[in-house]
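INPUT
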Amino acid sequence: MKLLLRNGRVLCPASRLDRVLDVLIDDGKISALGPRIKAPGVRVFNAARLVVAPGFIDLHVHLREPGQEHKETIETGARAAARGGFTTVCCMANTAPVNDSPDVTRFILGRARSAAVNVLPIASVSRGLRGEELNDLTGLSAAGAVGFSDDGRAVASSRLMRLALEETKRLSAFVVEHCEDDALSAGGVMNEGALSRRLGLKGIPAAAEEIIAARDIILAGLTGGRLHLAHVSARGTVALLREARRRKLRVTAEATPHHLLLTDAACASRDPAFKVNPPLRGRADVRALLGAVREGLIDVFVTDHAPHAEDEKRLGFEQAPFGINGLETAVPLLLDRLVRRKVISLSRLVRMMSTTPARLLGLKGKGVLRPGADADLTLLDLDARTVVDIRSFASKSRNSPFDGWKLRGAPVAALVGGRVAFPFDGLLPGESA
Ligand code: DOR
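OUTPUT
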């Protein structure tokens, strides 16, 4: 099917474009980019005043299938992704069963075939996430795993982490590390500090993150393997990243909107919507993390979309599971709080949400707008005013700390392989038919 997007602001860091252009889509690919493209008989959409960006990619989501379909399924998670402006998501391995075998990887890819967006599985590093036995990373990679992670916990053994990093060199994959020293964090429910002591809640010290980040950066140096630090939250981790960058190690990092926009002060309400792992940190940490984004030490934004059922989150702050629902709020939050407030440019946001994640995943034809590339597109309206409403989520779960936030700037459409994945009725905004 052919489609012409007319007069959008085409913004693509990879091809150094930021101009008002037409985009012609044919058979799932971009077939032409240019001013006033003539294509008689083609469906035309007026994209004037909209930004047309290469499709956004989220390297870090939890879709809960197989095993916890009451929280989310691949289908509902993918719909939430499309509504949030994403065209590709990578789903973590902490499902039930764990994605530690080619069979589970293939099951996920089978379900992904009918999903609204591209879903790429990240398999676990260790069997059953137990940190004892290394999976067959070659077999998992052949089955379609795009990376490896024991996310939800760190790879427990240094020896296993070393082996996994060595394997990544052969497989052109990466290890995504959830940096948390269990022995220090066990039993903790929020950031360790003055507030956790005042509230009488057990804390998780920043050191729990920093120790594993330091260990793994040392192992990245030892092996030459590719390490990606998940959801960085602590000031000390930023300093470690800076040093890794100085040494030119193959270390990249991600940050979430919630760690950039909220502090542990929010936990004073004991509202489980603010309970997440790693925990919301103190003001100095948030300042350092924002500085790291500006400095380029943080390579990508991710959501760490972690849906949980309402009754589970209602258990109270100490009992409720860790996790924040992120897919439908991330882009509006980052547009409003980072781009509109000039912490970063719009072009930097697009680079961090599309160009760079596509490069980290080695996805040819994604993260770029040029003839021949996949027609995965995210359309943004920088002036759209929205109010976060958890009841309107396409996700099965509602656990967001951002309910009621008024934001300016939002995704208005997502095209996946030339198909309109969002809006769900298939009409693009500004349709001129
Ligand atoms: O808050 C979190 N929730 N952090 C994690 O690392 C795992 C995730 C989950 O799976 O719920």
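end of record. The CA atoms of residues 149 and 378 lie 27 Å apart.
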